[in-house]
Write a structure and sequence with these properties.
Oligomer: single chain
Largest sheet: 9 strands, mixed
Shape: globular
Radius of gyration: 24 Å
Strand content: 15-25%
Number of helices: 18
Number of strands: 26
Length: about 575
């Protein structure tokens, strides 16, 4: 008798080949059979008419604080995620001196839009070093597996104090100390090191993230530490305003360390060609034998605005602030009040040229109703600007009407990055590039303005089934892309494939009926903090280490998740065809 048998499903095994009908037997935390299973299971799942996939590996999340109080890491686990990797973009909570807790919280609050009050209330500090942090996470109850990376911002601030926060150059002594701490963290099981070089990342007071101007000696010192350890991956985001110089510096890190590197690929309307130049340089690096990858999104980096969100297009209007303290019902009434509307629309606001905030508040051609189910590839004729032109109205009037809908819970979608053509053609190019991997969901971050933890479901539903404004992509390719490929991106070779001997992380999905709800605000963070969550219907079961941890996206109470310490080799007993590797 097997512990669990999944019967009659259409198996997408993660290797990228065509699906096939098969049973899956699980014993303990390991897959024992993929094929015909004659013995019964202590528990059985009938997957007839459904697909069976490996559990999804999300390589880009920011649950560094949430992992210490939330074993379920929602909303990612509403979307089939069975392994979450955090510590990305150079921000996190270790190492951290006892007197720097509030500073790190402020950095995370600013960079990743996680309420500082929730972090201050929720995090129970019990560490200073990164290995100590890993010990705390390891002892925390977990429903899914998590992997941790060393954030350069916290590392720099720990070694350099205020000098690091003020972007001063690291000395040789500073660099050596950072290198030693990196080696210790990698030896303790950190999966890698991450950093940020983008002007978009600022703390709650608007100051640049401490790694923004880290110089070559510092970066190379970290790379040398990784070379000595022979472990870990590198992850980062950069602006690449000087593409040749900055990419050359990052390529040097790979040359020195010999370790894989992945970086964010985004198309910014202010600099529309940089993303393709960076991809060309990644391709050149791979031709030279350097393991560099682009992390690419499933859809635009989409800001969600509305009365319930943290942002709306009128936030910089003084008149708007009159109604901000009011209840949602009272705000809706104000939006319908002719006197308030007249005063609001008569106000002149000085928007700064070239700022992202100016785009968010004035680019009406990129504002769309999100709807339910949400449409993440809206057509230009559906924008606020297009509606206003057809009706002969001020686009801001259209916005006020839309925001008042659904009793004030309506949402406006602004595809900030990757949507210059007015569709997902750029994203399609990114996804199909031979040197990219799916990423950038930012699960756990930007909780009041972005809800991209649903990327795995977007890949399945939009790209694998529903897209009408362009081609769909093969479902077997999509599933491999967010299982085997994302696992291997961070050095995990024990999961991501349905085969005997592999880790038993499995999703059973009613693919034909898989549906994503629109994001909604809930107040379930510590200290009553608010955040967006986005649920789905169709994830019949998510199995982690052989046990059903989630049914229909909701936790069963099984807490079989673990901290992953270091890269994981392919199990010796794994039965994977050599040609598929």
């Amino acid at each position: 008798m097997h512990d669990l048998v999944i019967r009659n499903g259409l198996v997408y095994d993660g290797l990228g080949g065509k699906p096939y009908e098969a049973d899956v037997a699980i014993d303990g935390a390991t897959i024992s059979i993929v094929g015909t299973v004659t013995d019964t299971g202590r528990e059985e799942i009938d997957a007839k008419g459904q697909i069976v996939t490996p559990g999804f590996v999300d390589a880009h999340t920011h649950y560094d604080g949430q992992v210490t109080w939330d074993p379920y890491l929602q909303p990612s686990t509403f979307h089939g995620v069975t392994t979450a990797i955090m510590g990305n973009c150079g921000v996190g909570f270790a190492p951290c001196a006892p007197d720097r807790h509030n500073w790190l919280i402020g950095l995370m609050e600013g960079v990743e839009d996680i309420p500082g009050t929730a972090l201050a209330e929720g995090i129970k500090w019990g560490w200073e070093s990164f290995p100590d942090y890993m010990d705390v996470v390891e002892k925390s109850p977990l429903a899914l597996d998590v992997g941790l990376q060393v954030p350069h911002g916290a590392l720099r601030a720990y070694v350099m104090g205020e000098r690091g926060a003020r972007l001063e150059p690291a000395t040789r002594e500073d660099t050596d100390k950072m290198g030693a701490l990196v080696e210790a963290a990698l030896e303790a099981g950190a999966l890698g090191v991450t950093t940020s070089r983008t002007e978009k990342h600022r703390d709650k007071d608007g100051e640049h993230t401490p790694t923004y101007k880290a110089e070559e000696m510092e970066l190379n010192g970290i790379a040398e530490a990784m070379k000595r350890s022979g472990k870990g991956v590198i992850q980062l985001i950069a602006d690449f305003r000087d593409v040749d110089w900055e990419f050359g510096m990052l390529r040097k890190m790979v040359e020195i360390s010999g370790r894989p590197l992945s970086l964010t690929i985004e198309q910014d309307d202010r600099h529309p060609d940089i993303w393709s130049q960076v991809l060309d340089k990644i391709a050149d690096a791979n031709k030279a034998g350097l393991p560099m990858r682009g992390q690419v999104p499933a859809r635009p980096t989409g800001v969600v605005m509305g009365l319930t969100a943290s942002l709306n297009p009128f936030l910089l209007y003084k008149t708007w602030h009159e109604i901000m303290p009011r209840t949602l019902e009272a705000q809706v009434a104000a939006l319908k009040d002719p006197d308030f509307r007249t005063r609001l629309l008569a106000e002149k606001v000085d928007f700064k040229e070239g700022e992202i905030s100016t785009q968010l508040f004035t680019w009406f051609h990129k504002m769309f109703p999100l709807g339910s189910p949400p449409n993440y590839e809206p057509a230009p004729e559906d924008s606020v600007e297009a509606h206003a032109k057809r009706d002969g109205r001020d686009p801001r009037e259209v916005l006020l009407d839309w925001m008042a809908e659904d009793d004030g819970k309506a949402l406006i979608y602004f595809p900030l990055m990757n949507y210059l053509p007015g569709d997902l053609s750029y994203v399609e190019q990114m996804l199909k590039h031979p040197n990219t991997t799916f990423g950038l969901s930012d699960g756990g971050a930007h909780v009041g303005i972005i809800c991209d933890a649903s990327f795995p479901t977007t890949m399945l539903t939009h790209w694998g089934r529903d897209r009408t404004r362009g081609e769909t992509l093969p479902l077997e390719w999509i599933i491999s892309g967010q299982t085997k490929k994302t696992a291997e991106l961070v050095g995990l070779y024990d999961r991501g494939v349905l085969a005997p001997g592999m880790k038993a992380d499995v999703n059973v999905i009613d693919f034909d009926n898989l549906t994503m709800d629109k994001p909604e605000i809930v107040y379930d963070l510590p200290a009553g903090g608010k955040r967006f969550v986005q649920k789905t219907r169709g994830y019949t079961a998510s199995i982690i280490s052989g046990a059903v941890a989630f049914r229909n996206g909701e936790p069963t109470g099984v807490l079989g998740g673990k901290l992953i310490r270091g890269s994981q080799a392919r199990p010796a007993a794994a039965q994977i065809p050599a040609a598929a590797e």
